[in-house]
Write a structure and sequence with these properties.
3 domains; single chain; Leucine-rich repeat, LRR (right-handed beta-alpha superhelix); 7-stranded mixed β-sheet; mainly beta; Copper Amine Oxidase, Chain A, domain 1
Length: about 400
């Protein structure tokens, strides 16, 4: 993601004397709109030249024209690169909104403004070239990977302790960089600092996306607790731990990118769309130092000791063999860590559709398999992300 002045592609085009009409020759598609013309090449490059502005497009069918009137509308899943040549003065509102596979945008120095929502929801757009001082209207690059680098922040600063700094974009992306840990924040005003001391506290209803850059090693306890509109979290591989309650009560949080092996402390993602509840005969299971999660096979894994207790099972752990066993009513099932098959005490192997694992020194096994083996009925409520176990 970068904001660059000039474009190698643009310079080459000008040196070769390629006018828009010439660019359209042999193109997969081409046309004109107002004072500008466009052509689409077979490799997904949309080139726009001529003079004047690319028109504005509304969303509701009122004047100015609707997005369905965009001459390149049918190619919104084809275009991967946009080149706007010298002579074009503006990219109109919503001109490329929703071009989900657009990756690169190169705007000539003649472009002086980018209209509202022009590139909103271009989810692959990470590389933008444009001159300094271009006027960016509301949401011009909202919900794109490029937003944080091309849109001037509306707020920012350094964290009082350590080498961490932050900035907040107009679209609600909070970017945290630097080196070291994001501090811990408690809830009661005692040391370490209270959540009211978080430098981004006043934006807790503004932030929709959090990007933690390489160099940051930890997300502190309660650092983003209660950010109710936060939807996405992207943590660099340098982050090794997420503190207790760091994202608790982030009720909209449904998308997290985090490296394997990151230590998740108590309640790190509790009461988010990522958290999983389990009830046994109508009573919610209460977890202490570990919580359920959904694994890569879309199976709910539960902490073995707490789950066994909730089901009324006897639990034993064999550290040397790395196996957990559960017994009730004369039946025993054994889970070898990392294995895709459980076995009975008689040695019969029973295939599972995922494996028991150890995470943060706690053993987990698939909830449905364990409960059904002992005769419980298991169902899943997707709306509340709840495993319902009944007998």
């Amino acid at each position: 993601m970068k904001r660059r002045v000039g474009s190698v592609v643009l310079v080459l085009c000008l040196l070769l004397g390629l006018a828009p009409a010439a660019l359209a020759e042999g193109a997969a598609a081409s046309g004109e709109t107002g004072g500008v013309s466009w052509s689409l090449s077979g490799d997904g490059t949309l080139t726009i030249g001529g003079s004047g502005a690319i028109p504005d497009y509304s969303k509701n069918g009122e004047a100015p024209p609707d997005i369905d009137d965009r001459p390149w509308q049918q190619y919104r899943y084809t275009v991967r690169r946009l080149v706007v040549l010298s002579g074009v003065t503006r990219v109109g509102s919503r001109a490329f909104q929703g071009f989900e596979r657009l990756e690169r945008v190169e705007l000539a120095d003649s472009v002086k403004s980018v209209g509202a929502w022009a590139f909103q929801n271009c989810f692959a757009l990470s590389d933008v070239t444009m001159a300094e001082g271009v006027a960016l209207e509301t949401g011009a690059f909202r919900d794109t990977p490029a937003e944080a680098s091309v849109v001037p922040p509306i707020a920012g600063g350094s964290v009082s302790a350590g080498g961490v700094s932050w900035s907040l974009s107009e679209g609600g992306t909070l970017t945290v960089g630097g080196s070291g840990a994001i501090p811990d924040y408690n809830k009661n005003g005692e040391a370490p600092p209270d959540i009211d001391d978080r430098p981004w506290q006043q934006y807790r209803y503004t932030v929709r996306r959090l990007v933690v850059l390489s160099g940051v090693t930890r997300v502190g306890s309660r650092a983003f607790q209660g950010f109710e509109r936060l939807e996405r979290v992207e943590l660099a591989d340098s982050v090794k731990s997420v503190g207790a309650w760091a994202f608790q009560n982030c009720f909209a949080l449904s998308d997290v990118t985090v490296a394997e092996g990151v230590a998740l402390e108590t309640g790190a993602f509790r009461d988010t769309l990522l958290s999983v509840r389990v009830t046994v005969n109508g009573e919610a299971v209460r977890w202490t130092d570990a919580e359920p999660f959904i694994d890569a096979n879309d199976r709910v894994l539960v902490p073995l000791r707490a789950m066994g207790g909730a089901l009324g099972l006897s639990v034993a752990w064999d550290g040397e063999a790395r196996e957990a066993s559960f017994t009730a009513d004369g039946r025993t099932i054994i889970f070898p860590i990392g294995g895709s098959a459980a076995r009975t005490d008689g040695g019969e192997a029973i295939q599972m559709d995922t494996a028991a694992v150890i995470v943060n020194e706690r053993a987990y096994a698939p909830a449905r398999f364990l409960a059904e083996y002992f005769g419980f009925q298991v169902s899943w409520d997707g709306a509340s992300r709840t495993v319902i176990i009944e007998r």
